[in-house]
Recover the amino acids of this structure.
């Protein structure tokens, strides 16, 4: 009884939370904040005025729908596009099942991916082929049902699979091994599906656009991982020869721009290859990106290794585990868990860095954009519009990933053990 | 008793394949042999390739005539040597990096602090700035700015700010400070001021250390360094200012004059000119890096503010004092290491100028590779140049960071 | 001498020296431990007592002298190091449980990976050990979810799971809250009565007096005094020992 009385008595003082109060607290609480707010409002007015007048009056957006497909997939032949969708569907199934089984981290990542997909699905703008103008135009289409269920049925299917398999996968822990196997197989599967064989081959010179950007980033981060871990272990090794070689590699690669590594892949590497051995242009770029990001991955992993108390290694040794087993079962699982946010950050950086490969002649997103405004006489002078769209695509992906990374950091509780 | 029960030791002599020391050395040698074999394989491939093309590696080409033009940079003509051309590139890289680092630091700190503002609107604008510009590839930003530079008005329709800054399709024209006949005499006054200040400071510090505080015990005496700082602040700085200001008026002519760019028949003359390529590169690098620096600053300050700030307030310090005496000195060691890596990123990203044709190190190196058959050597020169820049910068920043942390500890 | 002690020496140390860079940590330790013996090692911090027991399973490498454990000489022989680590269990001050594994996996890791036991057999043995430690209900939790005293008992179970002949305890109760010390000491007492050879570095003088066959006092890298607990506590010979005992008993 007494308790209740007390809780009634000790009501917090006046905490009205109306919008006026909010404005007072956040914008006009002191005289200098009032001045700042006024300045900011004037600044915003001019920025918005400029942006709006450009977006809605000056900008010539017809360049976007006319080139939307090529921006997404490059010169990949339209009659083979279904193969890309098959790949995406496969990945959606794997991701959905993984999200259902592991939840937490994976669920966050797949939610972000689904969010990006949803943006693409719901934008009520329709690309209409205009036979007279010889290019497509972008039109508002209120008939969103038609857009979603007809024009974008492949994407809809993709998202439906993602959500559906999430519910199927929930609490099916027995599937874990299969899913991991599936992820490992998904990589060759993607390559085979995209490349094809025999008469249906789509050579890598026809890979491009956002497709190639995503592919390069994914390959870069996955392939650099084992090399990065080895380099990190090597740098911390007690054996001086191994630690020196690892350190020199890491510091050299981190000391030069990515562009030098890419050029090395395209100009210098062929000189070091035996005889007439030639590597595919896309493969060379992938190798360069992998070698480059391995050095950064090594430094991230090393950060995680340093955070592990010496007692963990001693305890493992005292139980009789050998060095490889101690590393595999005790050290790496803890170190990698601690550096997940850093790895996501590195993935974002790598995703942005793939934009450089157009300089060595690849047709990823930037390369396509350059090709449109620089190569096609119809679209000269459309630089800004194309760049803004490409920037928006990069922004959506990077922002989604950094959002995920912040959430992961909060989940892991940085600094907690 | 012990002798009787002494157990048999399993092995006295260790076979080499189980000896830890042997294995350690053995693995390292094996590893090195692997590396050497790989390098040798690549090297012999290279030699074969070169032989097939009838080429040889030699640096003598650096002394031959380059024969290509460079649009901007230090004095250079197409009849100069390749070495000279390369050095133009190096200087241009350093120039854009230093100006970029300066601007990015300024803007980055501005937005980093703005993100911590108590004003919601200011905070939000800063967040939008940071999130926008760090999530878009820097190459795209550079090309975007370059594209916008190219749609600027023609020379005779320049955008003019305050009648002294002109922006047009040929770039940005700024007024410049030029030395006059009065500059040399004034520099003498400057030198006198510096020497005077040094003498006074050292003398004063010595006097204070050996005489004024002689009574105090060694540990209570202010250190020599702190005496120098005291002297520099209260005595030397005023002396230096007085000498230089008096000198300014004593020289026959005002030492500097402001040269305004003027529109003449063939474009602007006088003042400073930033080419569109340089401007686009500078804006792109600055904006991109400043977004990251803002994050570095914000997280550095936030790392300190918690707890520390309350502790400082509980001692009774004012808000401004808390910031100056507690937060900033502790935040700087937290901020410096990631700041360094942002500086290095900016310098490395300057190589992206190749996409818009600004003649820096990488661009000129690539031109040279195209013209000569010494691609491997030129490539090595490019890599080494960047490595030297990276390693010196990080060495300097490490030194700076160490000196700062030491100061923080002794206080 | 307790009822389990035999005359078979199991650890023989001859003139063991150890340096950390220039710092001479162990200055010639010569001693023998017998099978079933319970030795308590005490001394001020920095006296080399922890380093000494860490040399016995080669977490620290000694630089001069010989150590023979269960007939195996500790040398640079890879096989011998691995063999000895299987024979010698160790319990640490900071528990050093693996935080990313459940308690039972902490215990079964060694038997499965080193002793090549089947997963099922290892888990059964682990559950039996946890039962003996009185914490069977904590088997499937993570170390961070249980108390310090429980963590240390899991750590003891982890060491015992390898079925070692010798157990080393490096200040097993120093990191524990006072109310949890007794539950760990109870387990150690029970272990002592089962006939395990034990080397215990500890400041728990009550435990030493009650359980130990021998108390060794380390100072500045040498064994200053060793005796049966009754003699050691009631009739210390050396000045340093007297001072140490009086200081420790004050607490």
């Amino acid at each position: 009884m007494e308790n209740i009385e007390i809780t009634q008595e000790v009501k917090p003082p006046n905490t009205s939370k109306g919008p006026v109060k909010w404005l007072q607290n956040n914008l006009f609480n002191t005289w200098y904040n009032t001045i700042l707010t006024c300045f900011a409002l004037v600044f915003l007015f001019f920025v918005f005025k400029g942006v709006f007048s450009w977006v809605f009056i000056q900008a010539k957006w017809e360049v976007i729908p006319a080139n939307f497909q090529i921006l997404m997939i490059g010169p990949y032949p339209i009659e083979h596009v279904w193969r890309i969708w098959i790949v995406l569907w496969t990945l959606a199934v794997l991701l959905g099942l993984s999200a259902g089984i592991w939840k937490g981290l994976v669920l966050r990542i797949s939610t972000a991916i689904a969010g990006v997909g949803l943006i693409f699905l719901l934008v009520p703008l329709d690309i209409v082929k205009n036979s007279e103008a010889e290019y497509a135009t972008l039109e508002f289409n209120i008939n969103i049902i038609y857009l979603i269920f007809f024009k974008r049925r492949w994407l809809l299917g993709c998202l439906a699979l993602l959500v559906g398999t999430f519910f199927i996968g929930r609490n099916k822990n027995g599937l874990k091994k299969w899913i991991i196997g599936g992820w490992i197989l998904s990589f060759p599967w993607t390559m085979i599906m995209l490349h094809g064989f025999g008469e249906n081959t789509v050579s890598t010179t026809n890979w491009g656009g956002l497709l190639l950007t995503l592919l390069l980033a994914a390959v870069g981060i996955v392939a650099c991982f084992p090399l990065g871990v080895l380099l990190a272990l090597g740098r911390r090794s007690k054996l001086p020869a191994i630690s020196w070689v690892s350190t020199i590699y890491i510091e050299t690669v981190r000391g030069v721009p990515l562009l030098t590594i890419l050029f090395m892949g395209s100009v210098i590497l062929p000189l070091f290859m035996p005889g007439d051995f030639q590597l595919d242009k896309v493969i060379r770029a992938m190798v360069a990106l992998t070698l480059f990001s391995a050095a950064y991955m090594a430094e991230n992993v090393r950060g995680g290794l340093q955070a592990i108390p010496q007692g963990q290694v001693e305890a493992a040794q005292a139980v009789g585990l050998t060095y490889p087993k101690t590393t595999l079962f005790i050290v790496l699982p803890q170190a990698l868990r601690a550096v997940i946010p850093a790895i996501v950050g590195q993935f974002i950086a790598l995703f942005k860095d793939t934009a450089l490969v157009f300089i060595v002649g690849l047709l990823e997103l930037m390369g396509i954009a350059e090709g449109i405004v620089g190569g096609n006489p119809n679209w000269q002078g459309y630089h800004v519009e194309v760049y803004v769209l490409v920037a928006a695509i990069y922004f959506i992906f990077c922002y989604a990933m950094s959002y995920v990374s912040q959430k992961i950091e909060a989940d892991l509780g940085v600094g907690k053990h | 008793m012990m002798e009787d029960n002494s157990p048999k030791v399993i092995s006295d002599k260790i076979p080499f394949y189980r000896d830890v020391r042997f294995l350690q050395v053995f693995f390292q040698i094996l590893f090195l042999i692997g590396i050497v074999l790989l390098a040798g394989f690549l090297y012999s491939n290279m030699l074969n390739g070169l032989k097939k093309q009838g080429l040889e590696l030699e640096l003598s080409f650096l002394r031959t005539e380059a024969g290509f033009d460079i649009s901007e940079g230090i004095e250079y003509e197409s009849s100069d040597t390749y070495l000279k051309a390369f050095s133009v590139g190096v200087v241009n890289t350093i120039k854009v990096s230093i100006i970029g680092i300066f601007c990015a630091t300024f803007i980055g700190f501005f937005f980093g602090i703005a993100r911590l503002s108590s004003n919601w609107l200011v905070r939000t604008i800063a967040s939008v700035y940071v999130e926008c510009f760090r999530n878009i590839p820097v190459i795209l930003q550079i090309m975007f700015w370059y594209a916008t530079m190219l749609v600027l008005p023609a020379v005779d329709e320049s955008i003019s700010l305050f009648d002294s800054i002109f922006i047009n399709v040929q770039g940005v024209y700024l007024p410049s400070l030029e030395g006059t006949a009065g500059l040399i005499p004034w520099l003498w006054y400057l030198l006198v001021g510096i020497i005077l200040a040094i003498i006074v400071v050292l003398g004063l510090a010595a006097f204070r250390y050996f005489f004024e505080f002689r009574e105090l015990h060694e540990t209570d005496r202010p250190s020599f360094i702190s005496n120098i700082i005291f002297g520099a602040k209260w005595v030397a700085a005023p002396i230096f200012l007085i000498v230089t200001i008096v000198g300014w008026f004593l020289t026959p002519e005002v030492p500097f004059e402001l040269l305004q760019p003027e529109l003449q028949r063939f474009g602007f003359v006088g003042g400073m000119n930033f080419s569109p390529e340089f401007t686009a590169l500078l804006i792109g690098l600055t904006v991109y890096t400043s977004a990251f620096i803002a994050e570095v600053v914000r997280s550095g300050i936030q790392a300190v503010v918690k707890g520390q700030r309350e502790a400082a307030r509980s001692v009774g310090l004012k808000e401004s004092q808390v910031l100056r005496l507690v937060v900033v000195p502790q935040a700087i060691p937290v901020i410096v290491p990631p700041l360094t890596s942002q500086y290095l990123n900016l310098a490395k990203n300057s190589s992206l100028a190749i996409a818009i044709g600004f003649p820096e190190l990488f661009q000129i190196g690539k031109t040279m590779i195209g013209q000569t058959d010494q691609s491997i050597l030129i490539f090595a020169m490019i890599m080494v140049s960047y490595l030297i820049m990276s390693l010196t910068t990080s060495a300097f920043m490490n030194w700076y960071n160490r000196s700062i942390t030491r100061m923080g500890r002794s206080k | 001498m307790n009822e389990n002690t035999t005359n078979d020496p199991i650890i023989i140390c001859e003139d063991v020296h150890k340096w950390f860079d220039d710092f001479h940590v162990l200055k010639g330790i010569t001693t023998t431990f017998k099978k079933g013996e319970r030795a308590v090692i005490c001394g001020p911090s920095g006296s080399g007592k922890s380093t000494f027991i860490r040399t016995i399973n080669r977490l620290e490498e000694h630089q001069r002298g010989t150590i023979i454990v269960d007939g195996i000489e500790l040398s640079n022989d890879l096989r011998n190091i691995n063999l000895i680590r299987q024979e010698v269990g160790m319990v640490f001050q900071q528990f050093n449980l693996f935080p990313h594994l459940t308690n039972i996996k902490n215990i079964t890791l060694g038997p499965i990976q080193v002793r090549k036991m089947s997963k099922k057999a290892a888990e059964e043995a682990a559950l039996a050990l946890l039962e003996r430690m009185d914490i069977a209900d904590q088997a499937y939790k993570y170390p961070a979810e249980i108390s310090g005293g429980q963590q240390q008992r899991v750590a003891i179970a982890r060491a015992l799971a390898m079925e070692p002949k010798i157990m080393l305890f490096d200040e097993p109760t120093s990191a524990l809250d006072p109310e949890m010390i007794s539950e760990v000491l109870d387990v150690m007492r029970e272990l002592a009565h089962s006939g395990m050879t034990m080397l215990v570095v500890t400041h728990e003088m009550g435990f030493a007096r009650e359980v130990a066959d021998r108390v060794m006092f380390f100072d500045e890298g040498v064994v200053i005094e060793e005796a049966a607990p009754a003699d050691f506590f009631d009739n210390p010979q050396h000045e340093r020992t007297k001072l140490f005992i009086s200081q420790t008993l004050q607490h």
Remarks:
- The beta strands of chain C are 9-20, 23-34, 38-42, 64-69, 72-73, 88-91, 166-170, 197-201, 214-219, 222-227.
- Residues 178-193 of chain C form the longest helix (16 residues).
- Chain C has a mean pLDDT of 88.
- Chain C is about 40% helix and 25% strand.
